[in-house]
Amino acid sequence: MTNRPENRVLIFDTTLRDGEQSPGATMTHAEKLEIAEMLDEMGVDIIEAGFPIASEGDFKAVAEIARQSKQATICGLARANFKDIDRCWEAVKHARSPRIHTFIGTSPLHRAIPNLTQDEMAERIHDTVTHARNLCDNVQWSPMDATRTEWDYLRRVVEIAIKAGATTINIPDTVGYTAPVESADLIRRLIADVPGADEIVFATHCHNDLGMATANALAAVEGGARQIECTINGLGERAGNTALEEVVMALKVRHDIMPYDTGVDSRKIMNISRRVATVSGFPVQFNKAIVGKNAFAHESGIHQDGMLKNAETFEIMRPEDVGLSATNLVMGKHSGRAALRSKLKELGFELADNQLNDVFVRFKELADRKKEVYDEDLIALVKQNDAVS
Ligand code: KIV
Ligand code: ZN
């Protein structure tokens, strides 16, 4: 259907929709526009800008993001009814490239909520996807809770949605229940079994309840998915969504075994991660992969010594590739003499061996009392040493 290379994976960012849905992560209108602009600039393919029917504010934000977008496709979410879909179209239609994303919960638990039989839901899917497609030629459909939907029913409704005109079928693991082998297998089976599946794009949308969202998303790509849905910092309901920075860097660093490309400029990752943390009010955990404060920091003597000799000893990515200027050698009680010498040199002090030994002893005493020894502390130690000797 497309002339996109077979190994190109589309990045669909839903920070402004699924991410913002996490309790307490509400962003202002101006903040949403700013994040959307950053996503657009970093090369995200599709930005899910919000849920236009949810509120007047969401509608306005999606409409304005649609108007300002320069490269990305702008998508809005809509439930499976005409009113939601019409409202969504009103908001996204201003975009250079608009998309309507409509969904309905297809698992037995979710079918019970609107109290629809399988046949009634199938008819609803047909009608709503057809309606969306009459408005917009780019329509995404999602069977919410797909990973807990009976195989025969999932297969059936995916076929209905494709026949009704969906151009992307997203397979959500809504409650983070699946595991990598199953995630790959599900997409593989759908592509093999559903007529018309090779004409459209399959997407994967994983939640992180069991900490497997990134692994499940990458496994789905192995199974044939060519769109990953994700958020900055993994922001999202409960334990969050697949983290954009993780999938982008995993595909970059392990291109040898996962030969798939994205259009994202990874050097913009750190900036947007920090901005999303600030505007959402959700700080990034220190040891978070890629963007955590400690992701490129080393304190132990053995690691610091290795890093000073060859950065590849303890780092599989270059800090510059995610937008950091350098690795951070944190000076603490585990640090060794080599790191101290190097740090002091950076600060403008070249000490003879005996002077370094003296400062090292004092440094260790201080490090035992303090978690981290800062540059100012080291400068003070050198000055005290000069005064004593
Ligand atoms: O997790 C989910 O199922 C969703 C859908 C709306 C795609 O976010
Ligand atoms: Zn979700």
UniProtKB/TrEMBL annotation:
State where Mn(2+) binds: D18, H205, H207, N241
Q: Which GO terms describe its molecular function?
A: 2-isopropylmalate synthase activity; acetyl-CoA C-acetyltransferase activity; manganese ion binding
Lineage summary:
Bacteria, Pseudomonadati, Pseudomonadota, Alphaproteobacteria, Rhodobacterales
Q: Which gene encodes it?
A: leuA
Q: Which residues form the Pyruvate carboxyltransferase domain?
A: 9-270
Q: Which UniProt keywords apply?
A: Amino-acid biosynthesis, Branched-chain amino acid biosynthesis, Cytoplasm, Leucine biosynthesis, Manganese, Metal-binding, Transferase
Query: Which family would the database say this protein is a member of?
Result: Belongs to the alpha-IPM synthase/homocitrate synthase family. LeuA type 1 subfamily.
* Catalytic activity field: 3-methyl-2-oxobutanoate + acetyl-CoA + H2O = (2S)-2-isopropylmalate + CoA + H(+)
Query: Carries keyword Metal-binding?
Result: yes
The pathway noted for it is: Amino-acid biosynthesis; L-leucine biosynthesis; L-leucine from 3-methyl-2-oxobutanoate: step 1/4
Cited function: Catalyzes the condensation of the acetyl group of acetyl-CoA with 3-methyl-2-oxobutanoate (2-ketoisovalerate) to form 3-carboxy-3-hydroxy-4-methylpentanoate (2-isopropylmalate).
Cofactor(s) this protein cannot do without? Mn(2+)
User: What is this protein called in UniProt?
Assistant: 2-isopropylmalate synthase
Q: How does it assemble?
A: Homodimer.
Query: Single GO cellular component annotation?
Result: cytosol
* EC number annotated for this UniProt entry: 2.3.3.13
Keyword Cytoplasm present in the record's keywords: the answer is: yes
Kindly state a single biological-process term from the GO annotations of this entry. L-leucine biosynthetic process
